[in-house]
């Protein structure tokens, strides 16, 4: 017995999928662990708590790259989340990279 394909069913499944799986921008210098875990891909509550503890002990992160100093936050995790990581300087990582290259692409 073959079940007929119903595009309406597929559409309703997609629309009903929780949006919590979507990452978004987060300031790692002001957000709490729950917010960091929610917004960064592959970062659970334990890793987010480690980020907050590192920040509390060592001061604010100056750039997204500073997150590499947190144990277990490796280069792949950084690149996966770079576009959504904010620090106090409030520049998105893409803009900061453009600025570092001498303003190319403006």
Proportion of β residues?
Answer: under 5%
Decide which structural class fits the backbone. Answer: mainly alpha
Tally of individual helices: 5
CATH topology of the domain at 20-90: DNA polymerase, domain 1
User: What percentage of residues falls in helices of 4 or more residues?
Assistant: 40-55%
**CATH architecture designation of the domain at 20-90:** Orthogonal Bundle
CATH class of the domain at 20-90: Mainly Alpha
Kindly state the mean pLDDT as a whole number? 81
List keywords for this structure.
mainly alpha; 5 helices; single chain; elongated
Task: Set down the secondary structure blueprint.
Elements: H1 7-16, E1 26-27, H2 33-39, H3 45-58, H4 75-81, E2 85-86, H5 93-100
Walkthrough of the structure:
- Helices cover 43% and strands 4% of the residues.
- With 106 residues, it is mainly alpha-helical.
- Helix 2 packs across helix 3.
- 19% of the residues are buried.
- It has a domain of 71 residues: Photosystem II 12 kDa extrinsic protein (DNA polymerase, domain 1).
- Strands 1-2 form a two-stranded parallel sheet.
What's the quick description here?
The protein contains five helices and two strands, in the order αβαααβα.
């Amino acid at each position: 017995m073959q079940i007929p394909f119903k595009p309406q069913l597929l559409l309703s499944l997609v629309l009903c999928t929780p949006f919590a799986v979507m990452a978004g921008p987060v300031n790692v210098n002001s957000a709490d662990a729950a917010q960091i875990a929610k917004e960064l891909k592959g970062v659970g509550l334990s890793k987010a708590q480690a980020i907050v503890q590192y920040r509390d002990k060592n001061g604010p992160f100056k750039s997204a790259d500073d997150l590499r100093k947190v144990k277990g936050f490796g280069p792949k995790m950084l690149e996966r989340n770079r576009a959504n990581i904010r620090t106090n300087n409030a520049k998105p990582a893409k803009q900061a990279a453009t600025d570092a290259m001498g303003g190319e692409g403006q």
